[in-house]
Amino acid sequence: MKTELKNIYSKKDLAIQKIIQEELIDITEDRYMSTYGFVSINGLEELANWVLGNGTEDSWEASDDCEQIQQLCDAVKKGKYIVSVLEANIENDIDVRIDDGYYTIRDISRAIDDFEYGSLSPYEMVEKIKQIIS
Fold first, then answer.
1. Whether 19 and 39 share a structural domain
2. By the 8 A CB rule, do 86 and 31 touch?
3. Is the CB of residue 81 less than 8 Å from the CB of residue 98?
4. 74-83 as b/e: b if 16+ CB within 10 A
5. How confident is the model over 82-115, as pLDDT tens digits?
6. Is the pLDDT confidence value at 3 over 60?
7. Total domains present in the chain
């Protein structure tokens, strides 16, 4: 039984990665009304079938919109997007945006990699990091 579950999860993970790589998914920063609207606008039908369902067409139903949208965003790139519910009385009350710190962390990580691979001196790495955070 455990082997069967392990095979299912790895098949699901592989399918999700394949979808993300083939479709070069880029989520639009915007406000949405529901999980269905988010999936439709961003063309994430196939990804939603795997992340929120069992991999077959229309195998999921919207429930907690904010949580489901965050799951989809995390499947595309964990930590890149922040999903929140606006407290205003408006129709499109689910806000999806890129985390402001995402690019900072990515760029600092790249500067450290450049130092480790010898393309930056310690001084150059520190200066690059100072430039990133200023």
1. yes
2. yes
3. yes
4. ebbeeeebbb
5. 999 988 777 778 999 998 887 888 888 999 999 9
6. no
7. 2
